[in-house]
Design a protein that fits this description.
The complex is a heterodimer of chains A (149) and B (462). Chain A has 149 residues and is an alpha/beta fold. In chain A, strands 1, 2, 3, 4, 5 and 6 form a six-stranded mixed beta sheet that branches. The longest helix of chain A has 14 residues. Chain A is globular, with a radius of gyration of 14 Å. Chain B folds into three domains: 107 residues, Response regulator (Rossmann fold, 3-Layer(aba) Sandwich); 152 residues, no CATH class; 163 residues, no CATH class. In chain B, helix 13 crosses helix 16 and helix 13 packs across helix 17. Chains A and B meet through strand 4, strand 6 and helix 3 of A and helix 1 and helix 3 of B.
């Protein structure tokens, strides 16, 4: 199992245009839809919003990780988006979020997929990992950072 | 060096659980605190805390947005927060936990039997997966029909065993409710909800149709189980593999899926699966009806022992499902044996805690009181806390008692028309045949269980 099975350059958006929480979730899900990863966009949006209602996925330190587990997801995938201006995501620490990881997995997923996603999540806690994502110049550089987790 | 153990968990179990775990570990490293974090995520439980870990820990941190059981942390200093708090500021959490430990603030964990049992039940439910989960979903949806059907039939016998043959009588009406309607729906509901569990809503139609066919062909609950699984997996496969152009996709759930899946399941049931399963069911039914005493005792022994073996786990449920399924074939003996055998483990343990106090801890003696109630209510899980504390001695004891109860119930030819309810269904007329002997079987098993516990369990040191 390799990181590039989850994410590729097409799933990376360096300049998110959204300015608020709802639209950034939709913008990220749109990336998934364009890449044929989900079958039912509305369903995925609904699930993502439901998850946010249970507790924000804006985990602070400028990171948000909306995620969806649904039958409307064809395969496990991660979309990455960056907003240099920052978006008010209702984060724990009330700061703006800059790094967005949308994680989608089907209802039934292999453990190894989930373990890799767990590994990605663990890395997000580290300052230098986040800083390198913030400083990366282009999609290619983001990919090489992610491939080294 | 101070040691802290922690549990992290979040609703989806994909990201937060692990971020919180990493944060805690990182912060602990910085603060020179020993830390072990158990993650309860979508992969299941990882890095599980052992009893040893918990014993050595100075404090416990629970960072979870789900319900994490406290039972095992009894008497520890516990700090409980939302999972996000651990990601956000793990350092202050650790300080908080150590402070609490310093002050000696221990959290009293309510260790009463009822909450332990319901905890254990929900844990098992969550752990169920694959075919076993699907089968149990089907069974749980079927049970209300069995209860309504069985009790209505029993009531109709109040007017005499053949009273229902009198057209227009109340007895006939009760029979129509119970036998012709509720019991007739049993197998279709079972099959429909097995398929539902596998393929979601599209599974229900083919599942129920397959179950109905199993019923009418005479393939009974075995046929129904097969129909349910077939319908579920076939529908799931169709869902994933039929690709319609986008503008026709609306037709999938309303036209394509129900028609195709029902057609496939229906034809399979009628031509391929129905006939052999009907043969098996007929064989089973006539064997059960014409069973010699020796075979009846043997069956009772096996079913009884199964009921006690894992107290509500898969083996117990296999015996239970088998017996409930047979109610649909109007065979009531195994149901009686199984319910009786499921009642004796908590009853026997409760009696033992009264008679042989020096063999149980104070906590167990306390737990003995609600165990009486669980026993008479047919909640076998009431024995779990005792069995968990001392499985090697408790499980053989309760299995012996249950096996004897099951065997006696079969030997006495007791029949039971209700699938659940413990002693509370027994006063309803005709629900149980041979009530006196049934009580005798239950009492005998209870005493045997108690006696076995007396032999196997050593006296506790003062």
């Amino acid at each position: 199992m390799e990181v590039n099975e989850f994410i590729n350059q097409n799933l990376i958006k360096m300049n998110l245009v959204s300015e608020d929480k709802d639209s950034v979730i939709k913008e990220m899900i749109e990336i998934m839809a364009k890449n044929d990863i989900i079958t039912d966009k509305e369903e995925v949006i609904k699930k993502a919003m439901e998850r946010e209602e249970k507790g924000t996925t804006g985990v602070g330190k400028g990171v948000a990780i909306p995620h969806v587990k649904s039958d409307a997801v064809k395969r496990p995938a991660v979309a990455f988006g960056r907003s240099d201006a920052g978006i008010d995501y209702g984060s724990m620490d009330e700061k703006l979020s800059h790094l967005f990881f949308l994680i989608t997995v089907p209802e039934e997923s292999h453990d190894e997929h989930l373990k890799l996603l767990a590994q990605l999540s663990r890395n997000l806690v580290h300052d230098d990992f986040r800083d390198s994502l913030l400083e990366a110049k282009d999609e290619e550089e983001i990919m090489s950072i992610l491939e080294n987790i | 060096m101070k040691k802290i153990v922690a549990v992290t968990s979040c609703p989806t179990g994909i990201a937060h659980t692990y971020m919180a775990s990493e944060s805690l570990e990182e912060a602990a490293k910085k603060m020179d605190v020993q830390m072990k974090v158990e993650t309860q995520g979508s992969v299941g439980v990882e890095n599980e805390l052992s009893e040893q870990d918990i014993k050595e820990a100075d404090a416990v941190i629970i960072a979870a947005d789900t319900n994490v059981s406290h039972e095992r942390f009894g008497g520890k200093s516990i700090v409980e927060v939302a999972v996000a708090d651990a990601i956000d500021d793990a350092e202050s959490l650790i300080n908080q936990a150590l402070e609490k430990a310093e002050k000696g603030e221990k959290t009293e964990v309510n260790a009463n039997l009822n909450s332990q049992v319901s905890d254990e039940k929900s844990k098992r439910k969550a752990k169920r997966s694959g075919p076993y989960k699907h089968l149990m979903t089907g069974v749980s949806f079927m049970l209300p029909f069995v209860v309504a059907g069985g009790l209505s039939i029993a009531l109709s016998f109040v007017f005499g065993i053949n009273a229902a043959e009198q057209e227009g009588s109340l007895a006939a009406a009760l029979m129509q409710i119970g036998g012709d309607s509720a019991f007739a729906l049993m197998v279709p509901i079972l099959a429909g909800y097995i398929a539902f569990s596998i393929a979601d809503r599209p599974g229900i139609a083919p599942g129920m149709i397959g179950g109905m066919l199993a019923s009418s062909i005479g393939a009974g609950f075995l046929g129904g189980i097969i129909a349910g699984f077939l319908a579920g997996y076939v529908t799931q496969w169709l869902k994933e593999n039929i690709k319609l152009p986008e503008n026709l996709q609306g037709l999938m759930p309303v036209l394509v899926l129900p028609f195709l899946s029902s057609l496939i399941i229906g034809l399979l049931m009628i031509y391929l699966i129905g006939p052999p399963v009907e043969g098996i069911m007929n064989g089973l039914e006539s064997w059960l009806q014409g069973m010699t005493d020796a075979n009846a005792v043997l069956l009772g022994l096996i079913l009884g022992a199964m009921m006690a073996f894992d107290m509500g786990g898969p083996v117990n449920k296999a015996a239970y499902t088998f017996s409930v399924g047979l109610l649909g074939s109007e065979i009531y003996g195994p149901m009686a044996a199984v319910m009786a055998a499921g009642m004796t483990p908590p009853l026997g343990l409760a009696l033992a805690t009264v008679l042989f106090k020096n063999r149980f801890t104070n906590q167990e003696i306390e737990a003995g009181k609600p165990a009486w109630f669980m026993g008479i209510s047919f909640i076998t899980e009431g024995a779990i806390p005792f069995a968990a504390a001392d499985p090697i001695r408790v499980i053989p004891s309760i299995m012996t008692g249950s096996a004897i109860t099951g065997a006696l119930s079969m030997l006495f030819g007791v029949g039971l028309r209700a699938p659940h309810g413990g002693i509370f269904v027994l006063p309803i007329p005709n629900v149980v045949t041979n009530l006196g002997f049934y009580a005798l079987a239950i009492i005998a098993g209870t005493i045997v269980t108690t006696f076995m516990l007396r032999i196997l369990k050593p006296k506790l040191a003062e």
